[in-house]
Backbone:
């Protein structure tokens, strides 16, 4: 008997309690060796005035067990409630969102009968930092942050996942033809880490054409690794085209903790009717069992589930005349799976996690050599709407500090001075780049002096960004136009 692994379990809202009961009944019947700590989350907690939707005692449980099986919750409409998922992912450092999207042809209808992919989405960075500012009357900004350790963690995870799960290819989706520094870093780290896994094919697609190919021929993909926003969108598309949003589970993995859940919501209209399909949460629970090393039990459950699907025993959401044999309730579906524990599917491919081993996760590179960083200029952003780009250029050309002189002005990233085009539409948000000559040394006090002069000349300075070279390579984007 394996020692029992403590797990935190939340029953959630809507159909949550019914599908959680079904899931726990199946995994315990299959021999899962777990000790359940029930925690309260969701609508009731939000309505009690706790804006994260989770009681402090639930946080204590998660930090103790480090494994969280979570049913869907209802987010109350209106009010300043925070997303429980986003808070949990960030607070517990759950950097990898893993979502297998598999079709179960011919038993569940799909346009893509041989689809079997896993989307591994970076979960903490990108535009999801929630760092947004209104800077002028017309312009709002959201900060996109991509870090080297964040990219290394998720990309290494994707290759380790592929190797552990006997998958052959990892594809990276980015948009580095446009975002050369942020997505460019993700791509560069992908190339570096791919080199350490010669046994796994690697490829890179620009996300727009890659997404189109994914929607058209998902069978050409295997494991996909991508930054947060693209992954958020693509993992829903992939689950949907597999024909089975209600069937997919997902894992959120960190170095210390992990959370497992179905991808669907709490479907409140179906709550309490004993009709909901527990498969999404069951698949999440199978991923949890693999995570805690209970490979045999995970294998037993997945194969019994495949056999049940193959036998045509289907809940209402996947029931199809001509394919399905029996439309069953949540509890009947649960019992049908339990009866098949130990059986193997005959048409669908059986799964086996039995040769799995724990994955090697990212470790901080203690020997990383720091780049030499040199200050070469500053972008000064202005809120200004009193004239043309040439008027602004002329006024700012008179402003300087030490070696810093006006170099170029852009509006929404397009060069408008010097020699801008009259057709370029301008908002009230201007980026004015001040730089020295190639060999001049810029000191931080030059920036302070420059700002003082800009403000004294009557301009409304809303922010600055320092321009650095890292080992001689610009750490800032070139100007369009
Ligand atoms: P939903 O996924 O809850 O339901 C959409 C529809 O899908 C349902 O009406 C139902 O027809 C079907 N469906 C979903 N899961 C099913 C299942 N297991 N069995 C059978 N049919 C199923 O999406 P929604 O209606 O947009 O959201 C309802 C609530 O869930 C909202 O409050 C939303 O904020 C929340 N939500 C929570 C999570 C989460 O906790 N991770 C995720 C998404 C949505």
Residues:
């Amino acid at each position: 008997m394996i020692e029992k692994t403590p797990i935190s379990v939340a029953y959630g809202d809507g159909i949550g309690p019914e599908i959680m009961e079904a899931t726990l009944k199946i995994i315990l019947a299959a021999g899962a060796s777990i000790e359940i700590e029930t925690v309260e989350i969701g609508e009731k907690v939000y309505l009690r005035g706790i804006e994260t939707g989770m009681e402090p005692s639930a946080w204590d449980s998660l930090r103790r067990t480090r494994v969280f099986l979570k049913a869907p919750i209802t987010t109350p409409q209106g009010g300043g409630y925070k997303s429980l998922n986003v808070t949990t992912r960030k607070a517990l450092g759950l950097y990898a969102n893993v979502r297998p999207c598999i079709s179960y042809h011919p038993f569940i209808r799909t346009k893509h009968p041989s689809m079997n992919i896993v989307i591994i989405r970076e979960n903490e960075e990108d535009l999801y930092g929630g760092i947004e500012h209104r800077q002028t009357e017309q312009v709002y900004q959201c900060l996109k942050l991509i870090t080297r350790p964040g990219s290394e963690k998720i990309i290494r995870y994707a290759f380790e996942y592929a190797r552990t799960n006997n998958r052959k290819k990892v594809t990276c989706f980015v948009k580095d033809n446009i975002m050369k520094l942020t997505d460019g870093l993700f791509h560069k780290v992908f190339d570096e880490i791919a080199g350490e896994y010669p046994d796994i094919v690697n490829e890179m697609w620009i996300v727009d054409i890659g997404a189109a190919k994914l929607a058209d021929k998902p069978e050409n993909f295997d494991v996909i690794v991508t930054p947060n926003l693209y992954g958020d969108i693509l993992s829903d598309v992939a689950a949907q085209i597999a024909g089975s949003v209600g069937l997919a589970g997902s894992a959120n993995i960190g170095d210390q903790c992990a959370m497992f859940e179905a991808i669907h919501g709490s479907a409140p209209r179906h709550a309490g009717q004993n009709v909901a399909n527990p498969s999404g949460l069951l698949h999440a629970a199978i991923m949890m069992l693999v995570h805690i090393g209970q490979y045999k039990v995970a294998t037993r459950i997945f194969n019994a589930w495949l056999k049940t699907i193959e036998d045509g025993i289907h809940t209402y959401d996947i029931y199809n005349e001509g394919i399905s044999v029996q439309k069953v309730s949540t509890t009947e579906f649960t019992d049908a799976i339990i009866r098949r524990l130990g059986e193997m599917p005959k048409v669908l491919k059986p799964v086996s996690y039995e040769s799995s081993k724990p994955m090697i996760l990212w470790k901080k590179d203690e020997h990383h050599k720091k780049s030499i960083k040199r200050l070469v200029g500053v972008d000064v952003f202005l809120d200004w709407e009193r004239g043309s780009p040439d008027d602004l250029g002329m006024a700012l050309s008179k402003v300087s500090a030490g070696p810093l002189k006006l170099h170029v002005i852009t509006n929404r990233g397009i060069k408008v001075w010097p020699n801008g085009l009259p057709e370029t539409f301008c908002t009230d948000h201007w980026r004015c780049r001040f730089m020295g000559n190639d060999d001049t040394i810029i000191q931080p006090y030059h920036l302070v002096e420059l700002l003082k002069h800009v403000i004294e000349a009557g301009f409304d300075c809303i922010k600055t960004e320092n321009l650095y070279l890292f080992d001689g390579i610009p750490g800032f984007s070139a100007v369009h136009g």
User: Anything to note?
Assistant: The chain has a mean pLDDT of 93.
